[in-house]
């Protein structure tokens, strides 16, 4: 039987998920079709139900703006999805739809792939939306030392700190303007509009590794600025491939090699 999955998003035309998953399938010798669906927000739940009802479907990926709806749609939630408050992967198993979140795992794997030491690291997480919420559980699981949250709207940062308190314990706090960092993660989409987070250059004083979840065909403005201040910078392309690989593993119990896929995507940017 040919297996099938899709990515739900709106817009979704630019998604690289079909290429990534079809390349994984070739690596792992799986007969697999991966498509895109872009329903209107009000139609997402019906579209998801219809798609998942087909016998050959193993699951789906979910991107903006459907992750919160996906959270309430599933029969069961994984621990990561519960802690993130959002779902980016549907997994069909034993007649149920399980909600998973692989974003944070993809981030942590990419950081480690780039040689970043996470144990006891002091982290500044910029942003308090879905991307930040997805990253936080995996960072805590990676045994970072502390995470501070900065958001342009401080109340949203406070909400995230409160939401995550149950599993972050004493490691999580608001940005204080004085701490030094080993790792700064830009979990906003500001780089897509060539804007910098409204933070002082003092955050780069310790020459932290700087990670931008956005990826472009050139270094983002956040990366360029941080590099000018002596920081090592990484973009989010590896996170994209890593979170997809984790989804593929949940569907087929086969772990694909991300390196050749990442090289192909990088050369095509």
UniProtKB/TrEMBL annotation:
<feature type="binding site">
    <location>
        <position position="243"/>
    </location>
    <ligand>
        <name>shikimate</name>
    </ligand>
</feature>
<feature type="binding site">
    <location>
        <position position="236"/>
    </location>
    <ligand>
        <name>NADP(+)</name>
    </ligand>
</feature>
<keyword id="KW-0028">Amino-acid biosynthesis</keyword>
<dbReference type="Pfam" id="PF01488">
    <property type="entry name" value="Shikimate_DH"/>
</dbReference>
<dbReference type="GO" id="GO:0005829">
    <property type="term" value="C:cytosol"/>
</dbReference>
<dbReference type="GO" id="GO:0004764">
    <property type="term" value="F:shikimate 3-dehydrogenase (NADP+) activity"/>
</dbReference>
<dbReference type="InterPro" id="IPR036291">
    <property type="entry name" value="NAD(P)-bd_dom_sf"/>
</dbReference>
<keyword id="KW-0057">Aromatic amino acid biosynthesis</keyword>
<feature type="binding site">
    <location>
        <position position="88"/>
    </location>
    <ligand>
        <name>shikimate</name>
    </ligand>
</feature>
<dbReference type="InterPro" id="IPR046346">
    <property type="entry name" value="Aminoacid_DH-like_N_sf"/>
</dbReference>
<feature type="binding site">
    <location>
        <begin position="151"/>
        <end position="156"/>
    </location>
    <ligand>
        <name>NADP(+)</name>
    </ligand>
</feature>
<comment type="similarity">
    <text>Belongs to the shikimate dehydrogenase family.</text>
</comment>
<feature type="binding site">
    <location>
        <begin position="15"/>
        <end position="17"/>
    </location>
    <ligand>
        <name>shikimate</name>
    </ligand>
</feature>
<dbReference type="InterPro" id="IPR011342">
    <property type="entry name" value="Shikimate_DH"/>
</dbReference>
<feature type="domain" description="Shikimate dehydrogenase substrate binding N-terminal">
    <location>
        <begin position="7"/>
        <end position="89"/>
    </location>
</feature>
<dbReference type="Pfam" id="PF08501">
    <property type="entry name" value="Shikimate_dh_N"/>
</dbReference>
<dbReference type="InterPro" id="IPR006151">
    <property type="entry name" value="Shikm_DH/Glu-tRNA_Rdtase"/>
</dbReference>
<comment type="subunit">
    <text>Homodimer.</text>
</comment>
<feature type="binding site">
    <location>
        <position position="213"/>
    </location>
    <ligand>
        <name>NADP(+)</name>
    </ligand>
</feature>
<protein>
    <recommendedName>
        <fullName>Shikimate dehydrogenase (NADP(+))</fullName>
        <ecNumber>1.1.1.25</ecNumber>
    </recommendedName>
</protein>
<comment type="function">
    <text>Involved in the biosynthesis of the chorismate, which leads to the biosynthesis of aromatic amino acids. Catalyzes the reversible NADPH linked reduction of 3-dehydroshikimate (DHSA) to yield shikimate (SA).</text>
</comment>
<dbReference type="GO" id="GO:0008652">
    <property type="term" value="P:amino acid biosynthetic process"/>
</dbReference>
<feature type="binding site">
    <location>
        <position position="215"/>
    </location>
    <ligand>
        <name>shikimate</name>
    </ligand>
</feature>
<keyword id="KW-0560">Oxidoreductase</keyword>
<comment type="pathway">
    <text>Metabolic intermediate biosynthesis; chorismate biosynthesis; chorismate from D-erythrose 4-phosphate and phosphoenolpyruvate: step 4/7.</text>
</comment>
<dbReference type="Pfam" id="PF18317">
    <property type="entry name" value="SDH_C"/>
</dbReference>
<feature type="active site" description="Proton acceptor">
    <location>
        <position position="67"/>
    </location>
</feature>
<keyword id="KW-0521">NADP</keyword>
<feature type="domain" description="SDH C-terminal">
    <location>
        <begin position="236"/>
        <end position="266"/>
    </location>
</feature>
<dbReference type="InterPro" id="IPR013708">
    <property type="entry name" value="Shikimate_DH-bd_N"/>
</dbReference>
<dbReference type="GO" id="GO:0019632">
    <property type="term" value="P:shikimate metabolic process"/>
</dbReference>
<feature type="binding site">
    <location>
        <position position="63"/>
    </location>
    <ligand>
        <name>shikimate</name>
    </ligand>
</feature>
<feature type="binding site">
    <location>
        <position position="103"/>
    </location>
    <ligand>
        <name>shikimate</name>
    </ligand>
</feature>
<dbReference type="InterPro" id="IPR022893">
    <property type="entry name" value="Shikimate_DH_fam"/>
</dbReference>
<dbReference type="GO" id="GO:0050661">
    <property type="term" value="F:NADP binding"/>
</dbReference>
<dbReference type="InterPro" id="IPR041121">
    <property type="entry name" value="SDH_C"/>
</dbReference>
<feature type="domain" description="Quinate/shikimate 5-dehydrogenase/glutamyl-tRNA reductase">
    <location>
        <begin position="118"/>
        <end position="189"/>
    </location>
</feature>
<dbReference type="GO" id="GO:0009423">
    <property type="term" value="P:chorismate biosynthetic process"/>
</dbReference>
<dbReference type="GO" id="GO:0009073">
    <property type="term" value="P:aromatic amino acid family biosynthetic process"/>
</dbReference>
<feature type="binding site">
    <location>
        <begin position="127"/>
        <end position="131"/>
    </location>
    <ligand>
        <name>NADP(+)</name>
    </ligand>
</feature>
